[in-house]
Design brief:
heterodimer; A: about 200 residues; alpha+beta; Butyryl-CoA Dehydrogenase, subunit A, domain 3; 2 domains; 4-stranded antiparallel beta sheet; two-stranded antiparallel ribbon; 7 helices; 6 strands; elongated; B: about 200 residues; 3-stranded antiparallel beta sheet
């Protein structure tokens, strides 16, 4: 198969900041002539950084789901909620919202960690198969990842509102922090990953 | 004459015509958007930014929701969501909520206004490149739409125990979400820099 012309083969760089295509100059730290951002052939240490962030996120995903995210103290009893028990509580009042929270807080982070894992592993192996699909998977994951913050915001609202000392009192649990950390780490993981590594020619 | 552009997602080089594409183009290999069609002009973007700025102040000045339980009333603002977590000792989490719901939108709106207002008169704002890079860093951390849905989830959970009254800020926050979405799609990096190049020409 004839090799397709790429930026690398033509000596062209594309600015990640303003998307300008510029001729690569033989200088130590080239910068974009249009927006003065640093230019790279590929994002530096992309695979190692993404993998490291992803492993941290995968580890934190466990306490995020097991530790309570929220404590509720009322005059009748004390309760602690994990993400999953929160979904079950919602199931009684409104099932569409419960499904939404389940997808946003449990399915999306898991899918994001798994898909980024697949993408990083295949980029590292330089696998030639399903490149377009993997490329599209990566872009989709990047787009939906933010929705995992849903439950953290819901908890922040409950904490701010339910502070009626004589009746009910809501406080944040460490699970919420682990959960937010998963979102932040996977967002950074997606940002450090260089999609172009999916299209590198196999060795 | 035609020029070459390189796909930022897969490094494939494309030859493009000199006429701007009326419809967006996608990369021939990885299907990533390559050129976006121009929607709106600088004036539209400035109008949307001003609108977003007003909505942002409304969202922060008025209570988001008020709840009533047994004669006790409690209200919270946008800032209250972050402050509540902070007062319980989770400073990191509070900072994240504060950054994504207050600082993110504010920096996005003000930096765009700072860049676009001089550009409208074919002038470049001092420190344009730095401010633009700041904008590009802040953008992925603006979670207003997720926050809105989170508020709704909280209200559904509370509605079983308390009377929930939506405040002014809830509506303005909803509108801010829509305005920011419209603004972001009209001020993509490619679009912004093509305005800059046009003003330099």
């Amino acid at each position: 198969m004839k090799a397709l012309p790429t930026g690398r083969s033509l000596g062209l760089l594309v600015c990640m900041q303003c998307r300008a295509t510029v001729r690569a100059l033989q200088v130590a730290y080239p910068r974009c002539p249009r927006c003065y951002a640093h230019l790279y052939q590929r994002k530096p240490h992309s695979l190692a950084l993404t993998a490291a962030l992803l492993i941290c996120a995968a580890i934190l995903y466990i306490p995020a789901n097991l530790l309570p995210v929220m404590y509720t103290r009322t005059i009748f009893d004390d309760e602690e909620d994990t993400i999953m028990s929160g979904v079950l509580v919602l199931l009684h009042s409104s099932w569409p919202i419960a499904v939404l929270v389940f997808i946003a807080s449990i399915v999306v982070p898991l899918l994001k960690i798994l898909s980024l894992g697949v993408v990083v592993f295949s980029a590292w192996r330089r696998s030639p198969r399903y490149r377009t699909q993997r490329s599209e998977l990566f872009r989709m994951v990047e787009f939906i990842g933010r929705w995992s913050m849903l439950d953290v915001y819901a908890i922040s609202m409950l904490v701010a509102l339910v502070q009626i000392r004589s009746l009910a009192f809501v406080s944040v649990g460490w699970g919420a922090l682990a959960f937010a950390a998963v979102v932040v780490l996977t967002t950074f993981a997606a940002r450090t990953f260089d999609e172009r590594l999916l299209w590198e020619t196999p060795p | 004459m035609s020029s070459v552009i390189v796909c930022p997602s897969c490094d494939l080089a494309h030859r493009v015509g000199v006429a701007p594409a009326s419809k967006g183009t996608r990369c021939a290999r990885c299907r990533a958007p390559l050129q976006r069609p121009e929607i709106g002009n600088i004036d539209t973007a400035i109008a949307l930014s001003l609108c977003a700025l007003v909505l942002f102040f409304l969202s922060n000045a008025y209570p988001l929701v008020t709840i009533q339980v047994n004669g006790t009333t409690r209200a919270t603002t946008l800032l209250g969501a972050a402050l509540g977590i902070y007062s319980q000792g989770h400073a990191g989490l509070a900072a994240l909520v504060f950054l994504t719901t207050v600082v993110g939108p504010f920096l996005q709106i003000t930096s765009l206004l700072y860049l676009l207002l001089p550009l409208r008169h074919a002038r470049e704002a001092p420190g344009q490149n730095t401010i633009f890079r700041l904008l590009a860093q802040v953008r992925p951390w603006t979670f207003v739409e997720v926050f809105m849905l989170g508020v709704l989830v909280a209200l559904v959970r509370l509605s079983a125990y308390a009377l929930v009254v939506p405040g002014v800020a809830l509506w303005s926050c909803g509108l801010l979400m829509l305005t920011l979405a419209a603004l972001t799609s009209r001020t993509t990096p490619g679009q912004f820099w093509s305005w800059v190049e046009r003003s330099r020409a």
